[in-house]
Amino acid sequence: MTVSELSKATDAAAKPLELAIILPTLNERANLAPLVERLDKALAGIAWEAIFVDDNSPDGTSDEARAISQRDRRVRVIQRINRRGLASAAIEGMMATAAPVVAVMDADHQHDPNLLPRMLQSVTGGECDVAVASRFAEGASTEEWGRPDRVKASNIANAIARKVTGVDLSDPMSGYFMLKAETLRQTAPKLSGVGFKILLDILATSEKHLRVRDFPLSFAARASGESKLDRTVVFEFLVGLYDKWLGRIIPTRFALFGTIGAAGVVVHMAVLALVLAVAGGSFKGHLVSAFELGQTLAALVAMTFNFVLNNALTYADKRLTGTVALIKGWAKFGLTCSVGLLANVGVAAVLVRFGFHEYPAALTGIVVGSVWNFALSSKFVWGR
Ligand code: GDD
Ligand code: MN
């Protein structure tokens, strides 16, 4: 460190805190130290702190963050246990600082920290309420998009977002933005936290019209590790919209779970019909009937269909990966659903005995069974 660098650093330390950078992490161990170095360079002369919000990553990201914090007290750590989710991690990080301005940034080096000083100037100077680093603003570039369909999907989502928030955003899905902590605190009680898209959530929730300014970002390739958000952008976005509008009436995850369950019924019927068509005649005198075989196969296929889709979509943020975890999850899901089926049949049977009509009784059974499946699988299959 040169003398002038040293005096800059001590000046910054003596100044009241100006900016907190919130960095949600999930298995980013190797990215932390180089990132703090880049922040240090980019933010020379600014009094900043960085808060890593780690969801107990198995690779020891929290330990690494604490080790860095021991050397550099501008670095702080929140280690969450039994929690998952980018949006809630970002919100909790932003609520945990005394800095008047907060930024959220990815920890995988895809977001260029050199934009921070200009964003800060714009927010503190009152030029805008929210500074957004945009992958689609004029002058921006994306190194890693590769798949043109992802860019196109983003364009569609962006157009809808513009209508919903009433704000002209070139990149409403951006995970890199900055705003006054006070603005965040005003909207925070109404943010869903499931909200897959936190920036959009803040903008759509705020009662005050928020003025946004875009900062063109060159979206870099990931430095190390892998992306956790590989769902299609449009799906992510539609879920966000649903969550905003109807999520309080029927919780978003349950709605997804139920929709997939309904699709599962169709799959079940298709498999059953197929087995009956193929093997219908050839089972005379056998121990199992074609219907029994078909029904068993159909139930297994439908259950697997439900597991795979829920894992990919409903619980995308807590997705199970790796063969062992998948097989274990599948087995636990099967177990949960078989108990759900008992509850379903049991409730329906009791209702019929009490004089209910068969169809409303069956429907009630289905609802009870689904609620059971949802509640138990969210805890035991995707809980952690
Ligand atoms: N604490 C926590 N909990 N952090 C998480 C979680 C989680 O469940 N999931 C992801 N992260 C962290 C990652 O470690 C990374 O620092 C950052 O959040 C972004 O995750 P990536 O997995 O790198 O996301 P991406 O690069 O695929 O997605 C990019 O585009 C999205 C829009 O399409 C990011 O810029 C996102 O922020 C953006 O919303
Ligand atoms: Mn990333």
Walk me through this protein's architecture.
This protein has 384 residues and is α/β, with parallel strands linked by helices. It folds into 2 domains: 16-226, Spore Coat Polysaccharide Biosynthesis Protein SpsA, Chain A, CATH 3.90.550; 252-381, no CATH class. Helix content is 54%, strand content 11%. It has 13 helices and 9 strands. The protein has helices at 3-14, 29-42, 61-71, 86-95, 116-124, 148-165, 181-187, 198-205, 233-245, 252-279, 290-314, 323-353, 358-380, and strands at residues 19-25, 48-54, 75-79, 101-104, 130-134, 141-142, 177-180, 212-216, 218-219. A 7-stranded mixed beta sheet has the order 3-2-1-4-7-5-8. β1, α2 (29-42) and β2 form a beta-alpha-beta unit. α6 packs parallel to α9, α11 packs across α12 (323-353) and α12 packs antiparallel against α13 (358-380). The chain is elongated, with a radius of gyration of 25 Å. The model has no long low-confidence stretch (mean pLDDT 86). It binds guanosine-5'-diphosphate-alpha-D-mannose and manganese (II) ion. Residues 24-26, 28, 53-55, 84-86, 89, 106-108, 110, 173, 175, 227-229, 233, 317 line the site of guanosine-5'-diphosphate-alpha-D-mannose. It is a multi-pass membrane protein.
